Amino acid sequence: MGIFKLNLLLKLQRQRQRRRRQIQAHNGSVLIHPRDKINAPACQNNTHSWSGQAKCSDPTLPEDISCHIHSLMSMRDAARVACVSRAFARSWRCLPNLDFSEESLGINRSTCKKDEKLGDLTSKIDWILKNHSGIGIKKLIIQVGSVYSRDSCHLAHLDSWLQCAVKPGIEELIVNLSSMNAKYNFPCELLSSGTGDSLRYIYLASCNFHPTVRIGCLKSLTRLQLCMVNITENELRCLLSISLGLERLELRHCSTLKCLKVPCLQRLSYLDVMTCTGLQVIESKAPNLSSIRFEGDLYVQLSLGEPLQIKQLYRLCNDAAFYARTELPSSMPNLERLIIHSDTEMVNTPMVPSKFYHLKYLSIALGGQTYDYLSLVSFFDASPFLETFILNALRERTERATIFGDPSGLRMMPEHRHDKLKETLMEAHRALKAVQTYIELKVPSKVELNVLEPCSRLSALFTVED
């Protein structure tokens, strides 16, 4: 689709220039640039040169525009258009976005054997980097599929690929080796000597990160993602201390970490720590941290320098509902969005006097053989301004959830007002009435219209008036 639009754009450009020359010739003032004299015969002799039949000496677009168009194409389209244009062939040597993955390189994983795919992958990347000047690279993606990760042959090529592509001026670096066993030692020295000054985003997966030399200041880095990376607490702390502009920190499956200490990063607003099984302590001194996503047991010590700044929390652990109701109103009183997930909830949610005065969005996913779902009404009591409530009864618990039983025995909470939730239910009820009154009667008989009605048993918990 990108090449089609490019062909159309160039065709229109040539037509405009042809009309301009005709007008100038009619007025007796034809001005032809020397470059046009050289290129005109080649383009005129083959009006379909962009179809791959022949090459036009140079496109009629300015070089900076053609380079920009080239940079917006996928790797495959960029390679194809470079084969039929000398100008794009030149810009290929300075292509800013390099995506080395099976999909972008056109490797068919279903038809090729493993050895063929490995050879195809390495040979294609080697050829591209050999023909690239190494200048102007802004984004580098190296994604090695799991089928290659069981064989360490490709690791011998990684260092040379990174050395060719990671130069001053690069902004995004993604190295995803897709393996549970990190065998590759990331060459941390690449980030020194000013190379890392321009990096804005780093994603590393399935590798070791153990700097042996001092890394320069990553002053432009705003997002750091580490997945299945072997790194120590001191190494991570040193990495964070030179990333003063960091806004998002995401750690996944970094099992070697036992303690996470976040220094005073003024711009850090988002912290995501998932499945770091060895983690025992999380300590943050970031004053503007406002959103946290954390999966870990309740025994993990969570120490936040400015808990009043926390507006969003996603907490995944057993007994998350009990923890959220008893601890969070006092430790994070300004929460506006709360998502909790508990595969096993052993204790019913208690009625306590503390409140969530700012909570507007609440999503709860719970499981547990003996848990009483109606005890969640404690959250309604604590959240007078709640607007959205989502309950997900996990599969093992769905059939036993007491809220789906006989509604006559449901426990009610008289004199408690939840105007926002009531208003939402009333709007849904009115919308249903409008569809039934004005729309259903006018639908042709051959057209099937299905209107999903709200659950009458859940609606019975509220008084809905027309």
TrEMBL record:
Q: Which domain of life is it from?
A: Eukaryota
User: Per its UniProt record, what SUPFAM superfamilies does this chain match?
Assistant: F-box domain, L domain-like
Q: Could you tell me which InterPro entries the record lists for this protein?
A: At1g61320/At1g61330-like (IPR053772), F-box-like_dom_sf (IPR036047), LRR_At1g61320_AtMIF1 (IPR055357), LRR_dom_sf (IPR032675)
Q: Where is the At1g61320/AtMIF1 LRR domain?
A: 128-423
- Which N-terminal residues, if any, form the signal peptide? none
Xref: PANTHER family: OS02G0105600 PROTEIN, OS05G0571700 PROTEIN
Report what the protein is called. At1g61320/AtMIF1 LRR domain-containing protein
Q: Please spell out the taxonomic lineage of the organism that makes this protein.
A: Eukaryota, Viridiplantae, Streptophyta, Embryophyta, Tracheophyta
